[in-house]
Each structure stands twice: as structure tokens, then as C-alpha cells.
Amino acid sequence: MTERGQATGGVPRALSSFVGRKELLVELRRRLGASPLITLTGVGGGGKTRLALELAGQVQRAYDDGVRVVELAPARGGDPELLAQVVLSAVGVPDQATTTPLDTLVDYLRSRRVLLVLDNCEHLVEPVAQLVRAVLGAAPGVRVLATSRARLRVPGEVLVMVPPLEVPAEDAPPSAACESVALLVERAEAGVPGWRVTPENWPDVVRVLRRTAGIPLAIEQAVVRMRSMPVSLLADRLDDVMRVLTANDTTRVAHHQTMAAMIDWSHAQCTPAERLLWARLSVFEGGFSLPAAEAVCSGGELGRDEVADALAGLLDKSIALPSADRSRHHLLEPLRQHGAVRLRASGDLADVRARHQAFFREEAARLAGGFVGHNEAALLAAVDLDMANHRVVLADLITDPDSAHAGLQMSVDLARTRWYTYAGRLPEERLWLGRALAATPATADPLRVSAMALDAWIALCLGVERAQVARRVEELIGLAGEVGVPLPPVTFVRGAYEVLALGEIGGVELLRQAHEGFGAMGPHFAVDHHLAHILHTVSLVLLGTREQAEPAAEEFFAECERLGALWGISWAHWCRSVVQTRWGSPTRALEVLKEGLRVQRAIRDKWGPLWTIEALGWAHAEAGDAAAAARMLGLAHGLHRVTGVRVDGLVPFALFSGRAAARARATLGDDAYERAYANPAESVEQALAAVLDEPEPAGPRDRRPAGLTQAEWNVARLVGDGLSNPEVADRLVISPATVHTHLTRIYRKLDIANRHQLITLLANLAE
């Protein structure tokens, strides 16, 4: 059993110990070193996922850039674009590029050493195969470990059957050496206080294991029954189950039949309310909360006030599994599929899916309209936790002509939460908006025009060709005239286009009008009002006079502090720093910008650091530190390259960066400037570490080699202690990619080539 993470991509924390499979793990470690793709296959419930995670945990030291686990069960429907988005999110790639999601993924992985674990591929075999072929064809340092009931048919694939655990012979003497015995004993001793294997109960233990055919999930389901009955009675009941299964078939029962029979038996042990809830919970993707289960699964024979008790029963029977804090729950995939079959057979599927759609439509609207400032982190976390459910609902709504308009509304609501910006998923935002717009009639409807304005805003942020955005803005102006009422989203994007694409001060007035217009629309549009305030202030400090910019920046900072909106506060720091850079103290600007970066790192903002590090280059240039200016501009350029943002398409930013670069180049000369500028960042985390993890002077007892920053020395010491990159990352609370970047710099500074030489050098220093 493992605790599900939310888009972190790392190996999930195991909530129970791993038992057995020692010889198979040895063989898999050997094969993984030689084969680019291993697919674990076998019966549902046979332990493929748990084995894959155990293997990943054992070999992660061998991968400089770590292990990334991608749960594919929520990627329903076989949509290749959405599949790539799910993988991007789990791997941690900031997907703000104008390329396709698959191209972004391939480019990110091209030079990395990563183990990619793709779990539950069987319902997406062809799109997964296409993705794996693309990745392995371009990234020689990547290995893929997949779990699937069907082979992927990718060149170089090694198919490994995961067999059931060995079961003891009927006349075997008592022994825990057999893997199925070890699993039953470990789980029973944990779940049934005081229970032990004895010579008296051993024959019944053997009967239980032989009836479960050594299938791990079947064994765990059987152990649950031991909480309420002695093992002898459990064995008798399982004998009855198997007799029914073989009543009309004298041949040997297949493993998949045994697993199905065990799940059926577990189903039979449930109360009617628990059975009904089990079936209805199958509509959720990626897990659910109790309030979501109450809203979606109640109805008819299951009252809303009965859901919590029924869920508790499913948890007690290990049919539903909780997160560590019990705020979220999920069904193991074989059990979810069983519930889905029961739901289809019940005739309730349409009603339950309708409630699922209604709940998440309402949730998207609530999250879009619930911003008050201090709660923005909680709102964004709520979107993140249920994004798999949101995606399923969006896809269902948009593909049905009768509900396409509702899909358009939901796509707008999710866009307005700004989750896509925070998470670095702007192309996915455009994907949903584009699909929803294509599915609805081309009318001058306020909602449709607002969706088009959102799409134009994201295109502008991504640096889409200026002429294309200009055509969309002109179209929006015409449509707004047809609507006949003020549309702040259109005013906003018009102002943004004039400021960012043309560098015209007249856009500032349009942004002021948009800010005022959103405010007049009421508290449901507070998040839009806040965003317009951000861009209005940014525009003034870039294009306005000091008399305009300075009070606007201070007013905005005070408003963000009043709201407690951390993302806004980070941009308020940015605005105040630009005022200092242009008219005040560039040294003070540097301090303010770094404070903003600390806020952005704390809230895991994937967007703001791009612009903050760029502004650091401006401030360093004005402060006279040409080398630092070149380094910051180089870091920012690396981030823009990775994320696909074209700063040259955003006129005010391009002008300030061009001036800073020209000043630094004039001071340093071309060669020195290029050396300082060649400071690439492959992720936001790497860039933040490079800026914020400042070098400190070495004390008299510090063994740090000359030239290493404190951050680099922290990494080097842990590597010298034998920790892998992921372990170093965990210890220092940074990403494995940042560790990789530090090591690259350490090797260059110390004139060594690899990890072994670093460990040797550090050992000599210790003598």
C-alpha cells in the first residue's frame, strides 16, 4: 500500500512494508541496467504496481535526475495530448512552451538520467507506446518501467510476467520462508492484534493461501476477514467460494478468475450501503474527498448522511485506501474497475456521472469565485488535488453537444483560478479553451467572448506571434460591440496587448478600466480584479513616469498586504524594485527582488521567477555589477527558453533587458559577457537555487574548496557521505535537477569528471 502524491512525480511513500520478490527484484535490477523499457505484466491485483515502486526505490541512486512515477489510471480516454500533459505534470516539467506537450517532454528529458515509472498503462496502450517511443528515441539516459496487462510493443521492450507469490504445499511444515506466508503473517500481525501462526492454525493458513492462489491483493483482502473470524472459518468460507467457482468447470481455475472471485467475495461481505458506495466511487479519477463522495454518491438507497459510515466500512475492509491525513481516499485500480462494472450493471451510471459532473462544475465555479486573498494557496491546492477529475468532466462536457456550453463555462472557471499559471500548464489551458470554443456555436455570447479573451491573454503570455494575437484582439473588439455591454475581459486583453506587444502607454488606461470593471462585477470576480491590478501596476512601473509609478507600486503593495495574497505580494515586490531600479537605489532593488523570489519559492510559483530574475539583471546593470547582470540575464534567458516564453515579443521587457545587456557588455567586453551569460537554468528550481543560495565566506575550519558556494558545498558534502541525488535533494529541500546542476558546476570548478573523483577528493580533504 502506498500513499498517493499529487503530481510530485517521486516515489510515493509506502504505508506498508514490501514482502518477498527478492529473486525477481535482483533479476529486474539486472535487466533495467541493460534494457530501455521493461513492462511488468500479470493478473490484476498481482502486485505489479507495488513491485515497480519497490524496484524504483532500490535503483534511484543510479539515476542522477531521480525517479518519476506517473499514475496513468486517471488519464482516461486515450487522448495523446492529455496523456502527455499528465506525464509532464508528474515529471515536473514547466509546460509553458509553444511546442506540443510531447515535444516539451522529450526536450526536457533529452539530456537527463531518469527512471520513468508508468503505472496502469493497459487502457492507454497505443498512446503510451507512442510517448515511450518518442522519449526513448531522443533520451538515451532515460529508462522506462511500465505496468500493464498488455505489452506496449515498443522496440527494445522486455516483457516480465509478475507471477503470484509461491504458496506452500498442502503438507508443508510450518515456515515463514514462503513469500505468500510472509505476506499473510506480516499483514495479519499488523491488522489483527495478538494473532500468530501456530502449529494448530498452520493447516488453515495453508488452505487460505492456496485458495487465494498467492495473489497479493487476494491475500490482503482475505486477511481483512481475519479481523472478524478465526483463520479456520476463513479457510472454510474460501473453500465454499472456490467450490462455487469450479462447480461447472473441472479444469484448473485461472489466476484472474481467482482474483475476480476474491473481489466478488469481498463485495458479498459488504453491507448494501457499502456495495452501493463502492460502485459509485468508481466514477472518481485520482481520488476523492469525503464531501465529494457525499455529493456524488448519495441518492436513492444511499442517503447523504450514510456515506461517511459506508466509507468507513470500505476503509476497514481495505477496499478504499486513505491518505496519511485521511483528507483524501482512493480505490486500488482492480477494485475501482470492479466497482465500475457493478455501476454499469446497476443502471445508475448516467445519474452518478451527472452528479460527478455537477459537483466538479460547481467546484470549478466556487474556486474561480472564492478568492479573497489570504486563501489563494488553499484554492490552488484544491484545484491541483482534483485536476484529474476536472479533466474527465471537461472532456465529457465538451464532447457532448448538449453540454458543450457548460464545458465552455467550466474551462473559463478553471482558467480564472490561475492554477495553470502557477503549475506551469498554460498550453493545457489553451487546449481546453480551444476545444470548448470549437465545440460551441460561434455567436457573440458574453461567455464565449470572455473565453476568447482569456485565450488571447495566454497566447500573449506565451509569446505567440504578434500578428496572430493582433487579429484575435481585433476580432474581440468587434464581438464586444455586438454584445452591447461592457466586457472587462476584452478591455483587459486590449490593454495587455497595447502594453506588452506594442509598448504603448495608452494600454495602461485600458488596464485601469478593466480593473475598475472587474471590481464593479462583484466579489465573484475578485481574482480577475486582482490580476488586472497586478498588470496595471506592472505597466505603470515599466512605461510610466516616477510620479505615476511610485505611488501606484506602493498602493498595490499595501493592497496585497491587506489581502494577504502571496502571489500578488511577490509582484508588488517586483513593481517596487523596478521603481528603485529606474529612479532610486538599484542596490535596494536587488534586496526587494530577492525577497520576492523567496515568496515565489515558498508558494512554488512556476511563473513569477522568470520575470523577477530578469529584473535582477536590470538592477545589477544599474548598480554597476556587469558580471552579475550578465549572469542574471543568462539565467532568465534559460528559463524563457525552457518554458517557451519569448521575452522579445513583450516590448517593455525586451527594452529593459536590451539596455541592461548593452551596459554589461560594454563594461565586460564580448568574451567576458558571454562567459558570464552562459549560466543556463533548466528549471525554475535550479534558477532559484543559483540566485538565493548565496556563497558565504569560508571560515578557518571550513574544508570547503576555494570557489565553491555554500550551496555547492552542502551538495558536495552529502554526495561525499554516499547520498544519491534524490536523497541529497530530500535532505536540502531542493529538486534532484538542482542537485544535478550544482554537481555539474562543482565538477567544473574542481576540475574533476565524475562522482567517484569528488568522493575521493573529499576523503583526502578530511585526512
UniProtKB/TrEMBL annotation:
Keywords: ATP-binding, Nucleotide-binding. One of its GO terms (molecular function) is ATP binding. Gene3D superfamilies: P-loop containing nucleotide triphosphate hydrolases, Winged helix-like DNA-binding domain superfamily/Winged helix DNA-binding domain. The keyword rRNA-binding does not apply. Residues 701-766 form the HTH luxR-type domain. InterPro entries: AAA_22, P-loop_NTPase, Sig_transdc_resp-reg_C-effctor, Tscrpt_reg_LuxR_C, WH-like_DNA-bd_sf. The keyword ATP-binding applies. Pfam families: AAA_22, GerE. It comes from the Bacteria. This is ATP-binding protein.
